[in-house]
Amino acid sequence: QVQLQESGPGLVKPSQTLSLTCTVSGGSITTNYYYWSWIRQPPGKGLEWIGYIAYGGSTYYNPTLKSRTAISRDTSKNHFTLQLSSVTPEDTAVYYCARVLLSQLPTMTSRPAKAAGNWGQGIQVTVSS
Question: How do residues 8-21 score in pLDDT, each as one tens digit?
Fold first, then answer.
């Protein structure tokens, strides 16, 4: 059974870069046809898809966040990372990582709450000075 676990600092100062890692166990991040996403939920709001890295290493980002987002991976450690630059208090949210199959990718990118897949438990990140 695949498991995902988010880790990283819980507090980031404005204008800095938020960096999170999703460590995967029970399955490889290079397994064909799986897509590995980052999603967030600001307080009082719905889930927002941030971007994904595919099994082959290609990436795709939410256009509204693309200029500040980078997702990468380390296959030797079986984990993938999120970097979100120039953060503001509006980036305060619970951040999740998740795995979906290709068939669920359109749902993940448009309506992540409806996507069927494997999710981490989430990590609270607060942007504050």
Answer: 999 999 999 999 99
Mean pLDDT estimate for the chain: 97
CB 43 within 8 A of CB 92: yes
**Which H, E and C letters describe the chain, residue by residue?**
CCEEEEECCCEECCCCCEEEEEEEECCCCCCCCEEEEEEEECCCCCCEEEEEEECCCCEEECCCCHHHEEEEEECCCCEEEEEECCCCHHHCEEEEEEEEEHHHHHHHHHCHHHCCCEECCCEEEEECC
Cα(33)–Cα(56) distance, rounded to whole angstroms? 9
The dihedral over CA atoms of 34, 40, 41, 47, expressed in degrees to the nearest 10, equals -40
41: β partners: 94
Section 25-50 average pLDDT: 97
**Length of the chain counted residue by residue:** 129
> Which two structure tokens, joined as six digits, stand for 60?
């795709």
